[in-house]
Amino acid sequence: MCAVSLASCLCGAVPRIELATKVCLVIHHRELSRSSNTGLLAYRALVNSEMRIRGEGREVLDLQDLLTSDYRSVVFYPSPDAVELDRAMVEKEDRPIQLIVPDGTWRQARKLHSRHPELKLVPRVKISAANHSIFQLRVQSRPEGMATLQAIAYALGVIEGEWVRTQLMKLYQAKIERTLIGRGILRESGSDLGKYK
Predict the structure, then answer these.
(1) In the prediction, which pLDDT does 150 show?
(2) CB 102 within 8 A of CB 75
(3) For residue range 97-126, what is the model confidence (pLDDT) as tens digits?
């Protein structure tokens, strides 16, 4: 049970996707109760995914155990030293990728670098394509800014193939539709989100 109203419930729209790629969502604890959060939807959809919660209490979250030889770990964040996530980068190694994804506001996500020295040597990757979606669940401060689910969809599209991106973007569009209906911007019957893509 997701504990939201029936009109907002997305349980029936969440696919179950099994991939070689592992996504580890490092989510700020304040995001857990935000209705605009989409990272949790990615976590629910991706069978081979994991979630770590940061910012709770005084104890610092240790992510060292994520860095195993089973995966080629990368942090998915557009820091100045981040390289473009593209097929050439993916094909450099045979090991499956672990995408470590900070989830929160830009300010919260940026702190992953300073608060987690164990990730200091983990390469950063980014997708620098501009986000042309007309409707955003939150105001974006940069042209390439995306919702977490959107960004993960694009990243997995590069790593695993277009079919994954399509499945996750359908889920993202369903989230947008429910949000627009909840805000009274869209009617429930005969909705067309094409203009919001």
Answers:
(1) 92
(2) yes
(3) 999 999 987 788 777 877 888 999 999 999
**For residue 174, what are the CA distances in angstroms to 1, 91, 122, 139?**
18, 32, 33, 19
**Residues 147, 161 contacting (CB under 8 angstroms):** no
Q: What is the pLDDT of residue 40?
A: 93
* H or E element in which residue 41 lies: helix 39-45
Count of residues making up the chain:
197
Kindly report, residue by residue over 163-196, the tens digit of the pLDDT: 999 999 999 998 888 877 766 666 665 455 544 4
pLDDT per position as a tens digit, 68-84: 999 999 999 988 899 99
Going by C-alpha positions, the residue among 64, 23, 19 that lies closest to residue 148 is 23
- DSSP string for 126-175: E-------S--SS--SSTT---HHHHHHHHHHHHT-HHHHHHHHHHHHHH
Q: What is the DSSP code string of 60-84?
A: PPP-GGG--TTSEEEEE---TTPEE
- The tokens for 154 are 């694009």
Upper half-sphere CA count for residue 76 (Cβ side, 13 Å): 33
Domain residue ranges of the chain, discontinuous segments joined by +:
16-183
Q: How far apart are CA 99 and CA 24, in angstroms?
A: 6
Q: d(Cα 139, Cα 144) in Å, to the nearest integer?
A: 12
